[in-house]
Amino acid sequence: MKTPVRKPKRSLNALRPIRSFIVKVKWLYFTKIWGMDIHPTASFSLSAKLDRTNPKGVHIGEESYVAFDAAILTHDLTRGLYLDTHIGKRCFIGARSIILPGIEIGDECVIGSGAVVTKSIPPRSLVVGNPARIIRSNIKIIARYGRMQRDDEVTDVTRSTENIDGQS
Fold this sequence. Notes:
A hairpin with a 4-residue loop joins β7 (about 75) and β8. By secondary structure, the protein is an alpha/beta fold. The chain has 2 helices and 18 strands. The longest helix is centred in the N-terminal third of the chain and has 18 residues, at about 15-35. It starts with 15 loop residues before the first helix and ends with a helix. Strands 2-5-10-13-15-16 form a 6-stranded mixed β-sheet, with no helix packed on it. A 4-stranded parallel β-sheet has the order 1-4-9-12, covered by helices on one side. A 4-stranded parallel β-sheet has the order 3-6-11-14, with no helix packed on it. About 20% of the residues lie in helices and about 25% in strands. The radius of gyration is 19 Å and the shape is globular.
């Protein structure tokens, strides 16, 4: 016999409107005060680190998400570099990952947690590791913030299409 699943009486989701407000204020701070190029539909964790040494070099596309403790760098003082770092549309930058200066991440990419991105990434790629390597290409993003289509979702869509066509 299965035990019933109980919903918690309290949840952090109750604080979602407050978090959304704080993120919007931080977005205004980054874009208006520091001059960063962050699309209004992009989102980020409150602990994400966006480089303020060269703030105008930060470019984040629409519907992208930067997870907690991820660092997006636009400068390297040891080499005297001040470069633009671009993150495309509908990307997900995993927790505690590091994007080095001058990197371009293509549209619809997923960067795994803890990855150190040292080279530009082509669109629709899944990358992980230190240094980050492409482990999957031509991924399909089905929703905002880098949500990928799973293999079983492909099968379900195929089955439903077959049922509609009268085949099976």
